[in-house]
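Morning run. Coffee first, then this:
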Amino acid sequence: MIPIELQLAAADAIELLASAVLPEPFQTFYMLVPRVSYMPFMVTKIKEQWLNPMLEMSGLSNTHTVIKETDIWFEYRGQPLKWHYPVGLLYDMLVSDVEHGELPWALTLHVRKFPPEAALVPSPSRQSMRDMFMAMVKEADFIRNGSTKRVMDLSKADQMQLLDGIHNHEFEKYFAIHSIIVSNNGGNKQRGGAPKAIPMRFYMASEPQEANSEGSKEAATNAGMAQFHISQYPVPLTKDEAEQATLADAFRICYEIPEQAGDAFVTNCACLCQGISVPWETPVSWLAENFFYADCFLHLVVVNTSK
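And here it is:
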């Protein structure tokens, strides 16, 4: 869970209330958000418990001051936040302080003037958000099993239960369906044995010349996210017939780094997953069982600790 402190952008407050200073009870809004959740899943609560009561108290609850959920977006220190990334991943990418962190996480809320120059897709409808989430779950299923059959075999009610479990923070509902999709972590032979590969993505913050090696599989995100370079590749559970693949092995595979060069690189880096600095020698099979996000991926942020 991540405690979040929200303040309304001054320009938005002026447009809504004709004042940059909000009424006393509404100057700051606090939330405790699961790391595996998403920003769009927060907006209903924000509207119902903060914005709408603020407008009603100010006598401005009318059609001219309607706030649409799809107009809401979030910012951290001038950086618009990507709504399709899990909250915990955003925090690890943008705060990435292995020792101290920043809690509560202070964010700015916007309800107007979506920034077109930020290369940020406008906030989605609830259905679009759910479609995006299910697409990620299907991709993870394909990486694990070579097909999307397990996800496609879910009934509409099962899919809605999976989504509602995340949206409403009712994780017992989520895990009831997740156990159907990912039921082979322990090598259950009745369900097809161990997975073919582990769905995982690395996010590395560095200058392009530091990250780009010839033939690399990564692709850079927009510069607004501090030049994060994303690398994804199906990582097998073992690197030899019997030896388990480690996090360091997965990193070398994803970025096509020779073993000796990779060992030297990871010595000066930390890998964050779910807010924890994970030892590079950790088996990827153990990570997949214990550190997965709601979309069934491992999202791993690599930060330089030598600076």
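The mean pLDDT is 83. Good start to the day.
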